[in-house]
Every structure is written in structure tokens, then in C-alpha cells.
Request: fold
Amino acid sequence: MRMILLGPPGAGKGSQAQNLSVALCVPHVSTGDIFRANIKEGTALGIRVKGILTAGELVPDDLAVRIVADRLSKADCANGFILDGFPRTIPQAEQLDAMLARDGKAIDVVLNLVCPDEVIISRISGRRLCCCGRTYHLTGNPPKVAGICDFDGKTLYVREDDKEETVRTRLETYHRQTEPLIAYYAQKDALCDVDGEGAIADITVSILGTLEKMGL
Ligand code: AMP
Reply:
């Protein structure tokens, strides 16, 4: 299963990728997570991309492609993967296709999580994270104790690029640079629209049903 999750920031790509990764037994590959881990560790890559992420802009295509090529070459991706946050531009998509074609492979399905901008802004502004990787929402998925992770008791935090001004830039960047991918994959007959509004678990069930109907 080689799958791409497409959609604006905050559409639920990360949550769905986590659930689908467990259900389908393929790794979740998130470029955003890779960049954030490098920023946290203070690596050369992290230092290079920190300002870009904070501004809500895109890392240069060649760099994003190199990171993904390296990740997909690992043994755990041999039987498939779920890409979350990549590709984000047409050149990235073209290079991904070329990379897979060299091994006689192709993307099986692109799930496009559809979610209006107003819902995105409300979702992202309520998003709270734990360093263990769990995600909460102030109203949609609150922790049992405000501000504290249910699992490890650590204090939740707001992602640096979830601040409102940055969210608006990220949405603009999405519409300008990433949205054209919808037509790109529709043309290849790989696109499948998914309603991104609703409970995370319900959306996962609906996606799994759709994949089954598609014979994937
Ligand atoms: P995400 O966690 O997917 O929302 O990504 C967070 C940030 O990482 C984005 O706003 C970009 O700055 C950067 N980023 C992630 N994936 C890519 C990509 N494929 N191309 C360029 N920049 C990316």
C-alpha cells in the first residue's frame, strides 16, 4: 500500500496517517515530523529549516525530496508507506513518481481530506501536543486534565507554527502550491476525496471501507 494523504494543514492528515499506519501495517512518513525532530535535536538540517517552518513557508523542493528519498529507501517502507505532508508541490510529486518508477512502483491511492478553511483555523488554534506524539484538541479531543497528557502526565504545548498568523500563511501556501496536486492526481485516476469533517475514528473507518471497495 503506497498512499499519500493530501489536504490542508489541520485537515487531520497526521491523525488519519497514525490510525491507518496501525490498521494497514505500513509506516507513517511525515516530512513535518522529520523536520521538527531535526529542529529539536539541533542538527544541520534542523538549523536550516527552523525559520522556514516558523514562518509557515515551504522547505525547498530538493531538500524535501532528498529527505523522503532517504526515508523511503529504508527496509520498513519496502511493502508500502503512508506519506503525510509530502508531496506539497507539483515538482515534488513529479520527483516522487520518477523515484518510484525507477523501482517499477507507483502510488496506489491519494486520499484528499476535504475541510473548509474556517474549520481548519478553529481546529489548529485548539490543537495541543505532547512530546510523546499524542495530539489533543481543547474542545474536540480534550485531555482528562486541562493542559496535561493523559498518558504520561507531561505538560501539553502549542506547535510553534500553529499560531494564528502562521496558520493563515500555511493555508495560503497550501492553496497556492499544494492544491494543484488535486488535479495532478485526479488526472492519474489515483485521487479519492474523503470528508475531513467529523470524528477522527469515524473518518478512519470510512477510509478503510473505501479502500476495501477499491480492492486495496
Ligand atoms: P506539517 O507537519 O506537514 O504541517 O509540516 C510542517 C512544516 O514543515 C510545513 O509548514 C513546511 O514548512 C515544512 N514541510 C513539511 N513537509 C514539506 C514538504 N513536503 N515540502 C516543503 N516543506 C515541507
